[in-house]
Amino acid sequence: MTADPARSCRNTTHDEHVLVVGEALIDVVHRADGSVDEHPGGSLANVALTLGRLGRDARLATWLGEDARGEVVRAWLDDSAVALTPGSTGADSTSVATAHLDAHGAATYEFDLEWRVPAGTAAGHGTLAVHTGSIAAVLEPGASDVRALVAAARDTATITYDPNARPALMGDPVDARARIEALVALADVVKVSDEDLAWLAPGTDPVDVARAWLALGPALVVVTFGGEGAVAVTATGEQRVTAPRVSVVDTVGAGDSFMGALVDGLWEADLLGADRRDALRAIDPETLVDLLGRCATVAAVTVSRAGANPPRRAELSPA
Predict the structure, then answer these.
(1) CA dihedral 87, 91, 94, 99 (to 10 degrees)
(2) DSSP letters spanning 20-40
(3) What pLDDT, on a 0 to 100 scale, did the predictor assign at position 150?
(4) Strand order in the sheet with 96-101
(5) How far apart are CA 141 and CA 137, in angstroms?
(6) Among candidates 293, 285, 287, which has minimal Cα distance to 236?
(7) How far apart, in Å, are the Cα atoms of 111 and each of 25, 69, 115, 135, 142?
(8) What is the chain's alpha carbon radius of gyration, rounded to the nearest angstrom?
(9) Is 215 helix (H, G, I), strand (E, B) or coil?
(10) Residue pLDDT, tens place only, 263-291
(11) What pLDDT is recorded for position 39?
(12) Which H/E stretch holds residue 220?
């Protein structure tokens, strides 16, 4: 893959973009050494940020307050060229996620948040893909609007989805899996971690779940295995890549940066947009392996430093 974000086989316009729909918030991180830090974050905000840092036009539909924490989030997004869609600052207050990190840097979460989709949010002219997932896709009242938005956007855009399960918010895993699989069936591309699947489908081989999800309709289902790499399942075969070996500071935002890099790579390969759905289903193994390797590299950079801090394109050597 080249590192040039402008390359595409289609006739490009300046309006081409990815619409990311979901939560942006403040992460309050309690580290194993007793220190406490606040960082802007949120799964969907992290995906949009990754896309912005990789040189893509990413637009985030979210639900922030006009308060000090909301201003921190907005400045953080603006620094990576992520635009908020109209109405995204309509919340009474900015949501907070409290993360507790263990000695290995793995996080568990508690949440104080509200999620709504800003009125009028929809895929429009130039929307190549709509990405959603995590809290936004299951927490009402916004979740129902997310499903309706995604269903409508399929006519023109690629749908990408990362369940990014949050057990503290999602209740019973059997019920959560039913809600999640309804979105899997609407998606073209799904990325899911082995940890998510251990909660949603305990005792089941994660790749077997990916195969079952592929049968629901997506063209591509990717399972990530942390430092062990990732497996991609398509109708034409399965591909596995290993992850670069790095010293892990923490895992906050790692999956989100992998997801952002996945959307970036599909854009690079001219596989976004409803008109490219057949081409996406026919993605060749070499392209897929190169793409997954790039995603693993981006995630490895993210885990090598504190917080959700994905690399900018200039930090990555050409793939």
Answers:
(1) -100
(2) EES--EEEEEE-TTS-EEEEE
(3) 98
(4) 36-41, 25-30, 96-101, 107-112
(5) 10
(6) 285
(7) 10, 15, 11, 10, 16
(8) 18
(9) coil
(10) 999 999 999 999 999 999 999 999 999 99
(11) 86
(12) strand 220-224
Amino acid at 19: L
* Cβ(163)–Cβ(200) below 8 Å: yes
The first and second tokens of residue 34, run together, are 């007793």
Q: What angle do CA 190, 196, 198 make, to 5 degrees?
A: 125
Extract the tokens encoding 36.
């406490």
- Report residue 314 as tokens: 């200039």
Q: 91 and 119 in contact (C-beta within 8 Å)?
A: no
Let me know if 318 is exposed, middle or buried by CB neighbors in 10 A (0-12, 13-18, 19+). Answer: exposed
Sign of the alpha-carbon torsion through 60, 66, 72, 74: positive
Confidence of residue 294 (pLDDT cuts 50, 70, 90): very high
User: Is residue 158 helix, strand or coil?
Assistant: strand
Contact status, residue 166 vs residue 56, Cβ threshold 8 Å:
no
- Say how far apart CA 137 and CA 23 lie, in whole Å: 10
SS3 category, 237: strand
Instruction: Please name the amino acid found at residue 105.
Output: G
